[in-house]
UniProtKB/TrEMBL annotation:
<dbReference type="GO" id="GO:0000160">
    <property type="term" value="P:phosphorelay signal transduction system"/>
</dbReference>
<keyword id="KW-0808">Transferase</keyword>
<dbReference type="InterPro" id="IPR050482">
    <property type="entry name" value="Sensor_HK_TwoCompSys"/>
</dbReference>
<protein>
    <recommendedName>
        <fullName>histidine kinase</fullName>
        <ecNumber>2.7.13.3</ecNumber>
    </recommendedName>
</protein>
<dbReference type="GO" id="GO:0004673">
    <property type="term" value="F:protein histidine kinase activity"/>
</dbReference>
<keyword id="KW-0418">Kinase</keyword>
<dbReference type="InterPro" id="IPR005467">
    <property type="entry name" value="His_kinase_dom"/>
</dbReference>
<dbReference type="InterPro" id="IPR036890">
    <property type="entry name" value="HATPase_C_sf"/>
</dbReference>
<dbReference type="InterPro" id="IPR003594">
    <property type="entry name" value="HATPase_dom"/>
</dbReference>
<dbReference type="Pfam" id="PF02518">
    <property type="entry name" value="HATPase_c"/>
</dbReference>
<feature type="domain" description="Histidine kinase">
    <location>
        <begin position="17"/>
        <end position="219"/>
    </location>
</feature>
Length: 248
């Protein structure tokens, strides 16, 4: 009975993720294809029609790319069954080791959170946040070092993902209508929202970026731990890692 219960829970998790992300992406594509038909039939000049057409095609391409990335991380989880075999923390280290072998980027982790603090239903979303964030950093940041910190801060679980890359102006990126990097941040924010969390981005040009994700301790998200403290007996926090472009 325990085995069937685990399998049923896994099916439910996958069904939820596929519905929320792949299903939404396919719905967006359906709308865009209707727009393409509309633009083609609309009585406009050839130039205007061509501009709108190309813009819509580009949107479709980006949606397909994002969906492919979602499926890629899901198939990685399924292929190796790593979340069930290892747990979220060990699975994260395993995934990051695989990434480090394929790229020149050094990745380090630090954790003061126990595995039992994570309920099963949020592990996949959290793992996918890590996959998406590290992929964005490697692709866009020109970083040589990525650091992940798992910690407890008052009533929140905190994941801090930092890099020593190029950095960027957050407002400028978020104001762009069509930008691959912005779409990656949007995907991260959607994953965080699913877990009723909050996401903060701190970035400076030439000084790297920190992505701080806070998940509340409630029944839906993270189990309240017995108390993770530092040497002074205070709750641990996750701040900006103390390293420069050259490293620690």
């Amino acid at each position: 009975h325990r085995m069937f219960s685990i399998q049923d829970e896994e099916r439910k998790r996958l069904s939820q993720v596929l519905h929320e992300e792949v299903g939404q992406a396919m719905s967006a594509l359906k709308i865009n294809f209707k727009l393409l038909e509309h633009y083609n039939n609309k009585s406009k000049t050839v130039l205007d029609r061509n501009t709108e057409f190309q813009s819509c095609v580009e949107d479709c391409r980006k949606i397909v790319d994002m969906t492919f990335k979602s499926l890629k991380s899901l198939t990685f989880i399924l292929k190796y069954n790593i979340l069930d075999k290892m747990g979220i923390l060990e699975a994260t280290n395993y995934y990051l080791e695989q990434v480090s072998e394929r790229t020149p980027v050094r990745i380090v982790t630090a954790s003061n959170v126990n595995e039992e603090n994570f309920p099963e239903r949020v592990k996949m979303h959290l793992f996918r946040i890590i996959c998406e964030a590290t992929t964005n950093i490697i692709k866009h940041a020109n970083a040589t070092l990525i650091r992940l910190d798992f910690a407890i801060d008052k009533n929140n679980f905190v994941l801090c993902i930092s890099d020593n890359g190029n950095g960027f102006n957050v407002e400028d990126v978020l104001e762009k209508d069509k930008d691959e990097f912005k779409m990656g941040l949007t995907t991260l924010r959607e994953l965080v929202n699913i877990m009723r969390g909050k996401m903060q981005i701190i970035s400076e040009l030439s000084k790297g970026t920190s992505l701080i994700i806070k998940l509340p301790f409630n029944e839906y998200v993270i189990k309240i731990p017995g108390g993770v403290k530092d040497e002074k007996g205070e709750n641990l926090t996750c701040g900006r890692p103390p390293y420069s472009k050259a490293g620690y």
